[in-house]
Amino acid sequence: MIHRPKYDDWSLPKGKLEQGETDEDCAVREVEEETGLRCSLGSELPTIRYVDRKGRFKEVRYWSMEPDSGVLQDGNDEVDEVRWVSLAQAYELLSYVHDREVVAAWAAEHRE
Fold this sequence. Notes:
By secondary structure, the protein is α+β, with helices and mostly antiparallel strands. The chain is built from three helices and seven strands.
């Protein structure tokens, strides 16, 4: 999970596509930029659609991921804290219901 001081919120890593970039490449890049971890994509999770604080429509695609390399790190221009948390902590800490829905889908997928 990431904390963004600009919004004072806890959320899942996400970001905007760069020109010529696929959604999948964007997801891997944004997670690495915001957490320090280079990851491999797993299965796709639910797509979230919402209207942001400025009234703009947003659509965010998420994937399960497994870290391949890197070190979990805090601090860049957008993120001041990064945490690994339990499922219970994620539900409690996440600022947005739509992020909890993504975590719930991941949890359902990973039940044994």
